[in-house]
Design goal:
The complex is a heterodimer.
Chain A lengths: L1 H28 L3 H5 L6 H10 L6 H13 L13 H36 L4 H15 L2 H15 L12 E3 L3 E3 L4 H34 L2 H8 L4 H38 L5 H10 L3 H29 L1 H8 L1
Antiparallel strand pairs in A: 1-2
Helix pairs in contact in A: 1-12, 5-6, 5-8, 5-10, 6-8, 7-8, 7-10, 8-10, 10-11, 10-12, 11-12, 12-13
Chain B lengths: L5 H7 L5 H10 L1 H7 L2 H18 L1 H4 L40 H37 L1 H16 L2 H15 L5 H16 L1 H15 L3 H9 L3 H13 L3 H21 L11 H9 L8 H28 L5
Classes of the chains: A mainly alpha, B mainly alpha.
């Protein structure tokens, strides 16, 4: 087991190193960092001095080492467009993205679970058919189109909910801002969270439905029925419990996707998060922000995958035996 | 009227070498399964119409939306013909610059399908090549290629496309957007969707390379690239068609998303995504048609392509027959 854990952690570190290499190559070779920092009329000696002081004349491998060293201290340099440390820009916007992603994930999990269970237990009812149709649309429609549709319906026509921004936020501690504590913050959260969570919701719904139908056919459910247990306790005590393990795994794996897809949702709703910052960076070729965001998302995906693999190893005895050999 | 003899049929369909092929197609299970599903036929019709409209846009479209001499600002934001203030010249209205929406959508389809199609083809070429090499060569090359594929697969394709797009824009900074946008998008889509082809091709190549005909080819002394291309490839290429179809929908969505986010095609050369992004600005002023029609076109196209892909996957899968 220990050997597996160590090997798995080493693998993750290797992947992170590869991501860092890509980020570094972007940083170093796409556009000259010095050209971005100086004006047109800066004298040549000044440019050369800046180049030397930034260490751009050192061998590439030394620069890569320094890049990693800085990254370990969360230092990704200064943004070309904002002239501010990238880490601070990202940290300022992290709460907005994390709150949005968390709400979207909770929405996807709860609603997807309820719809999935309903579709499995009442397969032929018209509501189940409707849910199935909605899930097909949810998979096929691009996220931004769903966002536009929701804005048109609930913000323009009905005027119930705001269509952009975070509403009023409250400051907690040094840097965290939350929209959870004000009415306008909560109202602003509704449409973006649904837009962001819809795809994952349909995914979870389909998964729960398929797993639940599978479990309902097994012998222990038949046996539970034969014992004369109440339907509710069979459905929720026995069947649902056994469908939850794969569902939670998928939901966990999808968390990274939610944060990545937040780029699109944040653009549609003008949500002041990290995704919007990244997009502005892509539009303006602001490489330090792109590199830092790449590292951040890379770390997130690697950590989630590592965690899922390790938990599986702990939970599933078959995997533990396979690991030993 | 008497039923034509097989010879006459042969004469009707062009005869010669062509007829057995046509016979085979007419008798096949695939055509039967196609004709027995109304939804699939509808989807195929929609996809065909979209491709047809895109291909012949300059001849079908009533207006040329990119000819400044024929576009008048006085025609801007005219609603569809069935609404108050509609103009019979512009059946589904005009956009903010006075361009006919129907014509703009046809030209947008052209760009969207071209970028999506070329991107998917590039992805297929990269994926098939790497999959063949990985499966046939094995060893260290295989390990490296598949490791890269594994890592890439953990990230969503749209994120990778966005990143490649950003880097490519940095590299092509000297060129005007009109020239660089399409190649940049095709490359981004190609590099973000190759993994699935590589994995599928590698899997079947691993099986094929131990068969007698490959051993024979090797004994004759053919070089590895020839064996891979001429002997292994025709036997493993089958599933690629299904992946191509399913990925076309994804590629069109990716292109539209990138264009919507403002890193794809510029407004002077709009795709469906660009049209939606332009229309999105006029949502609040009540000009709903500028965004609704390109959006509906995109949604219906993608849905139809997905349905077609699903059907193709089931129809070509012998286990489901």
């Amino acid at each position: 087991m220990l050997a597996f854990v160590i090997r798995r952690i080493m693998q993750s570190a290797a992947v992170m190193l590869a991501v860092a290499l890509i980020a570094f190559l972007m940083f170093r070779f796409v556009g000259d960092p010095v050209n971005q920092m100086v004006g047109v009329d800066t004298p040549q000696e000044e440019v050369a001095r800046l180049r030397e002081s930034l260490g751009l004349n050192d061998p590439t491998i030394v620069q890569f080492g320094r890049f990693i060293g800085n990254a370990l201290h969360f230092d990704f340099g200064v943004s070309y467009q904002f002239r501010q440390p990238v880490t601070r820009l990202l940290a300022e916007r992290a709460p907005a993205t994390l709150e949005l992603a968390f709400t979207a994930a909770a929405f996807a999990l709860v609603v997807g679970l309820i719809m999935g269970v309903y579709c499995a237990l009442r397969r032929d009812s018209w509501l189940a058919q409707l849910f199935q149709a909605i899930s097909l649309i949810g998979v096929s429609l691009p996220t931004f189109l769903i966002g536009i549709l929701l804005i048109y319906l609930f913000a323009v026509v009905l005027g119930w909910l705001p269509s952009n921004g975070r509403g009023q936020v409250v400051k907690i501690g040094d840097w965290w801002t939350t929209g959870f504590l004000t009415t306008s913050g909560l109202r602003a959260l509704v449409l973006p969270a649904i837009t962001l969570g819809l795809f994952q919701m349909t995914l979870i719904m389909r998964l729960v439905r398929a797993e639940m139908l599978e479990v309902m056919r097994t012998d222990y459910i038949k046996f539970a029925k034969a014992r004369g247990l109440r339907t509710r306790s069979i459905h929720f005590g026995h069947a649902l419990k056994n469908t939850l393990i794969p569902v939670i795994t998928i939901a966990g794996l999808q968390l990274g996707s939610i944060i990545a897809f937040a780029i699109i949702t944040e653009t549609v709703f003008n949500w002041p998060g990290m995704g919007l910052l990244f997009l502005k960076a892509v539009q303006n070729v602001d490489i330090p922000i792109m590199a830092a965001y790449l590292m951040l998302i890379g770390l997130l995906f690697v950590l989630i995958n590592l965690l899922v693999d390790l938990t599986y190893g702990l939970v599933d005895p078959r995997l533990r035996i396979a690991m030993r050999s | 009227m008497p039923t034509p003899t097989p010879e006459e049929v042969k004469g009707l369909v062009g005869g010669g070498a062509g007829s057995p092929v046509i016979r085979k197609i007419l008798d096949s299970d695939i055509l039967y399964s196609f004709r027995s599903s109304k939804l699939t036929m509808l989807a195929a019709t929609i996809v065909f119409l979209c491709f047809f409209g895109a291909l012949f846009a300059p001849w079908i479209a009533p207006f040329d939306p990119f000819d400044p001499a024929k576009v008048f600002l006085s025609d801007a934001s005219i609603p569809p013909v069935w609404q108050q203030g509609g103009d019979p010249r512009f059946v589904i209205g005009t956009d903010d610059q006075g361009r006919d929406m129907f014509s703009a959508i046809l030209y947008g389809l052209r760009v969207s399908l071209a970028v999506g199609g070329l991107g998917v083809l590039l992805a297929a070429v990269i994926g098939i090549t790497l999959g063949l090499v990985a499966g046939y060569m094995g060893g260290r090359i295989d390990a490296i290629i598949m490791r890269i594929a594994d890592v890439q697969l953990t990230f969503p394709a749209i994120l990778i496309a966005l990143l490649i797009d950003g880097v490519a824009q940095g590299l092509f900074r000297g060129l005007p957007r009109e020239q660089s946008a399409i190649p940049v998008l095709v490359i981004s889509i190609g590099l973000s969707f190759w993994v699935q082809y590589a994995r599928t091709i590698r899997g079947s190549t691993l099986v094929e390379k131990n068969k007698d005909y490959v051993h024979a080819a090797r004994l004759v002394g053919l070089p590895a690239p020839i064996i891979m291309l001429r002997h292994v490839l025709p036997n493993v290429i089958g599933p690629v068609l299904v992946i191509l179809t399913i990925n076309l929908g994804l590629a069109v969505i990716t292109e539209a998303t990138l264009s919507f986010l403002g890193v794809g095609l510029p407004p002077t050369q709009p795709s469906l995504g660009t049209l939606i992004s332009i229309g999105n600005k006029y949502l609040f002023s009540g000009d709903w048609w500028i965004v609704a029609f390109p959006g509906a076109t995109l949604a219906i196209l993608v849905l139809a392509v997905n349905l077609l892909g699903d059907w193709l996957r089931d129809a070509l899968n012998p286990r489901l027959r």
